Amino acid sequence: MTTVSNDGGESPYSENKKLLSRRVALREIGLATASLTLAASTLAACATKPDNKLTPADADAHIDFTSKPDGDPPKMLDSGQPVNFVQTHWKPPRQPRVADGALVHGELPDTGAFANYFQAQIGGDCRSFGATWTVDDNDGSSSSGVMCIAAWAGIYESGSGMTVPRTPGHIVVDTITGEWQWWISDGKGKGAEHLKVVKAGTCAPPASDGKSAWEIAVYLDPAEGKGRLRLPGPDITNGSRDIVLNDTEIANALSALQLPVATIASTSHGATVVMVEHFANRDPRSARYPRFLSMWANTHSTSATTEPSRPQN
Description:
Blueprint: H1 17-21, H2 23-28, H3 36-45, E1 61-64, E2 83-84, E3 97-99, E4 102-104, E5 114-121, E6 128-134, E7 143-144, E8 146-152, E9 167-174, E10 179-185, E11 196-202, E12 214-221, E13 226-230, E14 242-246, H4 247-256, H5 264-268, E15 273-280, E16 287-288, E17 291-298
Parallel strand pairs: 7-16
Antiparallel strand pairs: 1-17, 2-5, 3-4, 5-15, 6-12, 6-17, 8-9, 8-15, 9-10, 10-11, 12-13, 13-14
């Protein structure tokens, strides 16, 4: 996949069909060719206990948008951490808003790419994070929008020309096709030059009926050099909602792109901000955006703790 400079401020990445179609090519160079045996063994290292789940309030950082009044989003999470949600380098400034118990996209431009961010400073290096949202295919939308969630090293200001922060997990899901991508960056280069896809696929997501909850979660294990992505629905290739990414795959991906090698450990260091994002690569007024219900994150190790539960409709 090819990233573009974010000097125009639209987003740290540019989602497009050409980029998505290269998923097959990525797999051919070994980015998504982990065997079922390897997947099973690495998943076991990041395993959770399904019979002992935490409540959302037990996460280090969390917010439930379903209980919030309409208007500007809260300036703090339910757990007390500060939030940044205004992109000031746009006229007018861009920000999401709360409507009908969900974090929605807010004011939209007429043309071009569009992105806004709800970014929380969680007070330590992120070890797991997730969100829930709904999608409504009757909201007048007709083109793909993108759900994005990430942990990264600093508050990002779109339109400012700043380099995209270092990130071990910048996950996007197409709200119509179910295509997903795992991006990583070492936080170097100009703009989004070093933000690259290292694994991709397509999942069979829940219904787009405005009621069914989609959920996603990322678990990072820097010591073992691997991460686990929990998709909204089963991947159509392997039939599993759990996707494992390891340092070898990351090295192969970045080497193929002639970029410096990075690891889960090196990219998660200093990743103290967790965000959710509404994004559209084009036709911002007709894109089908996610309506976020909740967001959560943990700074403690995820390989030896239980998986936090997320609110369900």
